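I am still getting used to backbone structure tokens and would like to learn alongside you. Please make up or recall a protein chain and show it to me in full. Would you write everything just below, so we can both look at the same thing?
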Amino acid sequence: MQFWRPKGETFWKITVEMSGRDGASKEIVSLNEPDFLEHITHYKNCPIPGTPTAQFVYLDNPNEYENISAEFWDFLARRSKAIVASGNMGIPSHLMQIVRLKMLEWISREGGIRVPSQRMPRLFVDTCLICVSENSVEITTLAREFLHIEDLTLLKESKTRSRVLLFSAFWLSQKYPTQNREKFLLELDPLFGFCLIDARNGELISFGIRTIRQCLAAYGKPWRNDVSLFISEMLKESMSNGVARTILAPPALNANYAVVTWITFACVNELFQRTLKPQQDCCVTIPEFFVLGYSGFPGEINSFDFSRRAQSAAVNLKLACSDEDLRYILRFDLSHAQPVLHVDFQIFCPGHTLDRKKLLDHAPISLDDLWRSNRTLYIGFLAAGGYDSYFDRLIERGLEGFHRISSENAAAGYPLIMRVLSKSEEDWLLANKRHLAALEKIANDGLKTLTSEEKSSIPELVSRKLFRDGGLTLLGEMLSTRLRP
């Protein structure tokens, strides 16, 4: 399609060449015809599911396509915050700032107290109880390893008129190797985050979660490696102007990004919380699981595990119920019984009557629901396909509802445009291992570790739009992560 103005004329001439499926082509020429102009603007370049190609498709609502594409690129380029949920704190406006300040002070104080014989701050093993009355705010620290589900029940049944909130920060990771811990932290890419709930009803108020690579990209390396600063910054972003939000952070050199969207979805999805199967007094919502759950000291057990190849993940936390330590596991995977990505929430305690009981059983992650109710999270969810080739291959075959919504509205498949834009460069990097090695080194360590031979690859990376102004472009970041073993 070409737009041009004949010399000396005030009108525009439009030439459109259209090819049919039979291979025949037809050229249409229009001179300022409003109907034609209005019709042609409905054609948008849409990815074809299951392929790395795109084609122009007539859309009934082209503005929706434009809005989705703009929000998608703003999200990836970190030009905007992806707010996927807002929670009601139920606190008088004049006390909101005081609550936020006291929470930040608590995080700072807890971040400065080390667990004996551990480098980890108590922030990640304690819980903050916040009681808000008409004119005061009180903060109490609770040791999470000694909390029981019955304590939450007492808070729910309490007759106090105060607003009662619970806040916990978490550090989830695979078990650490004994060698160079700082190096392996990046390779394991542990999860840092927080959860704030209304203790009376278990409802989520605010949730934040990021991998360490996302934290470093957003906040830089913390002073004296104090990772509690990550929690402070996340809370500042989420609680501002009197509103508590759940914000989805964009991917950043992060092959584990997909699981961040899965966990966020499980926490903010109200349907999941309403359909939990009660198991005596040991049933908790997923937000309560993150607030009360005790992970132990980071690196000593597998509190979090993610397999890119299998596209499965699990969060493993301990909760005490009736003086018994129960293991609650929030798991995401595919199975023969449920061949789409789904959530299981299950109790493990050998010898206990609740061993292997499921609170959620094969609950599918429905893209159909996301598309209709939470477009921002939908966009972030599919964005993971650009950074994780295994998840990318899962989208068409393993995500419930994608075929239906993309066939009804081609704009729903717009996030797959990354396949189209990156395919030729991905093939080129796979065929040029020296350039791929240079790209991966730049992604992990910057330019300082490049050999002379690898530095000679930079001009070609620039011409391929993978490197610019001393660092990787968005496409370069995506491919360096996508092609990571």
Observations:
- The mean pLDDT is 86.
- The chain has 19 helices and 20 strands.
- The longest helix spans residues 93-111.
- Residues 432-485 form one domain.
